[in-house]
Amino acid sequence: MRVILFGPPGSGKGTQAGLIGKKYRLPTISTGDILRRAVSRGTPLGRQAEALMKQGSLVSDEIVAGLVREAISTKEARRGYVLDGYPRTVPQAEMLERMDGRRSETAIEILVGQEALIKRLAGRRVCSLCQAVTNLEVNPPRLPGLCDSCGGTLEQRSDDRPEVIRERLRVFETQMVPLRDHYRKRKAYGSVSGEGTPAEVFGRMTGLLDPLLEGLDKGRQG
Ligand code: AMP
Question: Residue 50 falls within a domain, yes or no?
């Protein structure tokens, strides 16, 4: 089973993908995280992606497909996987189907209003050492500017600045309408409200996923 999470930037996809992966013991694959790692390592791919990411635009379908193909062909991904941030467009969804068409899938959209999103993104900080994510509004660090887990310096993602946030939300809305229709037609679409605490949202997620993934969290093949 493949679980596809989509939702606007700041909707909590990364957090929910982590929780789902832990409960059902599935690897989570985040194209945003893979790309950010490539950028910080200065790989050729990272250099290609960097400018686009900085301005909130999408990286090319070919680049992202290559990353996903690699990530889903690992041994860990044999039982299934959780995708965070992919597919983002209908061509990407079609490409995924060509790469791994035999697997059943469910796509879940996380719904959050614009104002809450802007507030969440503007307050988001990421640890420069362990990559833990925190939020100045919702979950402020014990010591200002420092990570609660490892003491590393907290930084703002360059694409979480207000002008870039607006562009990312615009890009998301444009892409989302056809993607929603695509998964609706395939009867593989569900949605949950992303308002409230991560645990509350996760409760809604498992309400949708438990019937589909029954047995997977006990480690059986699925
Ligand atoms: P995210 O962490 O998912 O918000 O992604 C951060 C940035 O990485 C996006 O704004 C895009 O520039 C790039 N990116 C991540 N996933 C994709 C994707 N599936 N297709 C194209 N670009 C992507």
Answer: no
Distance 219 CA to ligand 1 centre (A): 31
What's residue 215's pLDDT? 63
Q: Which domain holds residue 116?
A: 2-27+74-221
Q: Are 86 and 92 in contact (CB under 8 A)?
A: yes
**Number of domains the chain is built from:** 1
101 in a structural domain = yes
Instruction: Using alpha carbons, list the distances in angstroms from residue 40 to 29, 155, 158, 217.
Output: 18, 14, 12, 34
Average pLDDT over residues 172-194: 94
- Provide the whole-model pTM: 0.85
C-alpha of 81 from chain center: 12
Strand partners, 133: 126
Query: Which DSSP state fits 58?
Result: P
CA–CA separation, 143 and 140 (whole Å): 8
Q: Is the pLDDT of residue 114 over 90?
A: no
Segment 26-57, tens digit of pLDDT: 999 999 999 999 999 999 999 999 999 988 88
Whichever domain contains 178, its CATH number is 3.40.50.300
- Ligand 1, atom nearest to 49 Cα: 12
Residues marked active site are found at 13, 88, 124, 157, 168
85 CA to centre of ligand 1 in angstroms:
6
